[in-house]
Structure formats: structure tokens, C-alpha cells
Design a protein that fits this description.
alpha+beta; Kinesin; binds adenosine-5'-diphosphate; binds magnesium ion
Length: 361
């Protein structure tokens, strides 16, 4: 869990800090009618540096597992403006100071460093997709964005057909691909965040070991190993009421909510009527339906029923990392502000459920 600092706007209007990290992996939320403590594998308070998050979250180990041939995924989730993009990429375009680079750039550096210092190196390629209004689009191919069909195969699982995959060998190339792709991403300004990401973005690095040694030294990659490292920047969870979205933005919000819901995120008071209701003064209310993936995956193996990955494009593309053979790091991003209390609690409850999911890498 990462708690971002209060923003200038929040400080200026006098928001209170209602979230405090107590050390040893616990986070405490205290406000008038709420007093709750949650435990996680790691909690990063507002003062934590980008480097501390990289080193303390297990991200480095995840990169090493991917080099070793595992399917690894990291995803950032949380309310709009809670620091997901900052955590993954840093303040994109505003500053290139090394200290603020995010998990992605640090992981790329770690990968390339490994490639240079270990034997024949790694063959690396990247693809970058976004899911916008339930359409999968390629962020790397030039020209106007067009929708790619999703396919399924026994060997690959779900994948986007005809997605561009670009080989890279240097940090500059992959960082440039990340910037180019991120500029193509759909963002719109609304009340909570001036550059709100309106799509889910998935950057996947495919890693193949080039080793063809007949007698590999202990600890080196044996030939044929192929791992993936996937970074997922989810569009913010949000209630239409808080962001002041109308018209096209409202359609976007509903599509974002739809796929997050399939993933297991829910909004509004749990006792509310089931099913989405939209309107200027109405929360986007959706009671967690019986079938959302995270809750189902969090049940003990014997009690699991069918997992409805097909409910959204997002869950299809993440099926392998959510419940299959992947290794997944989930970073829950929250704001410390009193105004974000209900979203913060919802993110923390979701994160607690997500923690119980086990995969078999
Ligand atoms: P999200 O992607 O969740 O919508 P952003 O990552 O865009 O949110 O963050 C919203 C704002 O807060 C940005 O201006 C960002 O620079 C700032 N911010 C987020 N996390 C931090 C942090 N840990 N330290 C400093 N600024 C942050
Ligand atoms: Mg974002």
C-alpha cells in the first residue's frame, strides 16, 4: 500500500490526514465514524521515495523472477489521483530527475543491467496496449488508434491480435516507447485529477534468454526460458458524483467501472441495490455481484466456482496473472485526505481481499 502526500490543493482547503502508517506493514484509518487498521506486506507512507517503493515492494525480485522465466505482473490500483501513474512511471513529462522515476523505469534499468552483466544477454521486446471503453488499442503502432480483437489460444491464453511488439536493447529506447505510448493514452481532465487516465494501460515486456550454451553454469538461465513482466496502470476507480463527469466522460467512467467491477472493485455503500444506476446525483452504485474475480479467487480452492474472466477485456488480459501461473504484485494507492475516506476504505478492503488470492507459479 502506498499513501501519497497531501496535494497543495488539499492542504490549502484544509483537508485532514486520516491515514497513517504505523510501521511494520500496518496502516491506520481514523476519522469521525471510522477507525480501522489494515495489515499488508508493505506500507509506504507519504514520505517514502520512489526508490524505497522499488526496493521495499518486492519489485526487484519480480524482475528477477521474470528473467527466470515466470509470468510476472505488477498493478497499481486506487482512486483517481491517488498516485498510480506516479508510482509506476513518476511525474511523466514534468520531471526527468532520476529520483522520481517510477517502478517501470527502475525495472527496465534492472533488466538491462542484468542483460549486460550475465552471459549472452536477454532478448527483450515490448508491447503496450490500452483498454478504452472496452476496446483494446495499440499504443505503439503509429496512426490513429484502432481496436484490436482479443483472441484465445491454448498456449498463449488471451491475447490481442496484431499487437505491435518492439525489440529493444537500451534504456533510452524502452523509456522512449513508454513516453510515446503514454502520450497516446486517453486522458481527460476532471475534478479530481487534471490528467486523469481514462484507460487501463498494459505494458508487457517479453524476456527471452539468448543462452545456447550446452552446459549452462549453475545459476544462469537455461536456454529456452521465456518470461514476461507486465505493468498495469488501471484507470481510476471513481464515483461519477465526485468527478463531475457528464456526457462522454460519464460513458467512459461507466466502462472503467465495468471492468474494475469485473476485477472485483466495488463502489458505494454495500447495502445499496444491485446493478448500476447513473445520474447527476446518484453514486455509481454496484453491489459486488456474486461473480467477481478477486473475491472468487480469494476463496479456498475447494470452494471456488467458475471465475468469470470473460466479463471484461481487462480480466481476460489479466487472467494469467490473476489466477493462473503468474506472480503478481499489487500496489494499492491511496490518498491521506479526509475527503477521500470512503474510496480509501474501499481500496483497502479490496486490497485485503486481493492479498488472499494465491497463484501457482
Ligand atoms: P492516478 O494515476 O492514480 O490518477 P497520479 O499518479 O496522476 O494519480 O497522481 C496525482 C497527482 O499526485 C500527480 O500530480 C502526482 O504527481 C501527485 N503524486 C502522486 N503520488 C505522489 C507521491 N508519492 N509523491 C509526490 N507526488 C505524488
Ligand atoms: Mg493515472
Amino acid at each position: 500500500v502506498r499513501v501519497r502526500p497531501l496535494t497543495c490543493t488539499e492542504t490549502r482547503r484544509g483537508d485532514r490526514r486520516v491515514v497513517h502508517s504505523l510501521g511494520d506493514g500496518t496502516v491506520h484509518v481514523s476519522a469521525a465514524r471510522h477507525d480501522a487498521t489494515f495489515g499488508f506486506s508493505a506500507v509506504f507512507d507519504a514520505g517514502a521515495s520512489q526508490e524505497a517503493v522499488f526496493e521495499g515492494s518486492g519489485m526487484r525480485q519480480l524482475v528477477e523472477l521474470a528473467i527466470d522465466g515466470f509470468s510476472c505482473t505488477v498493478f497499481a490500483f486506487g482512486q483517481t489521483g491517488s498516485g498510480k501513474t506516479y508510482t509506476l512511471m513518476g511525474p511523466l513529462g514534468q520531471s526527468e530527475a532520476p529520483a522520481v522515476l517510477g517502478l517501470m523505469q527502475r525495472s527496465f534499468a534492472c533488466l538491462l543491467e542484468h542483460s549486460r552483466s550475465h552471459g549472452p544477454g536477454l532478448a527483450l521486446s515490448a508491447s503496450y496496449l490500452e483498454i478504452y471503453n472496452e476496446q483494446v488499442r495499440d499504443l505503439l503502432s503509429p496512426g490513429p488508434p484502432c481496436a484490436l480483437p482479443l483472441r484465445w489460444s491454448k498456449t498463449r491464453g488471451f491475447y490481442a491480435e496484431n499487437q505491435l511488439s518492439v525489440d529493444f536493447e537500451s534504456l533510452e529506447t524502452i523509456v522512449e516507447l513508454l513516453l510515446q505510448g503514454s502520450r497516446r493514452r486517453r486522458t481527460s481532465a476532471h475534478a479530481l485529477n487534471k490528467h486523469s487516465s481514462r484507460s487501463h494501460a498494459l505494458l508487457t515486456i517479453r524476456i527471452r534468454s539468448r543462452a545456447v550454451s550446452t552446459n549452462p553454469a549453475p545459476g544462469t538461465n537455461s536456454p529456452g526460458k521465456q518470461g514476461t513482466l507486465c505493468f498495469v496502470d488501471l484507470a481510476g476507480s471513481e464515483r461519477v458524483k465526485d468527478t463531475g463527469s457528464t456526457g462522454e466522460l460519464c460513458v467512459e467512467a461507466n466502462n472503467i467501472n465495468r471492468s474494475l467491477l469485473a476485477l472485483g472493485k466495488s463502489w458505494g455503500p454495500p447495502a445499496a441495490a444491485a446493478g448500476p444506476r447513473y445520474g447527476p446525483d446518484v453514486y455509481f452504485v454496484a453491489r459486488p455481484p456474486a461473480g467477481h474475480c478477486i473475491s472468487l479467487l480469494a476463496k479456498p480452492q475447494g470452494k471456488r466456482t467458475h471465475i468469470p474472466y470473460r466479463d471484461s477485456k481487462l480480466t481476460r488480459l489479466l487472467a494469467h496473472s490473476l489466477g493462473g501461473w503468474g506472480v503478481t504484485l499489487m500496489v494499492a494507492c491511496i490518498s491521506p485526505s479526509s475527503r477521500c475516506l470512503s474510496e480509501t476504505l474501499s481500496t483497502l478492503h479490496y486490497a485485503s481481499r486481493a492479498r488472499r488470492v494465491t497463484t501457482r507459479p
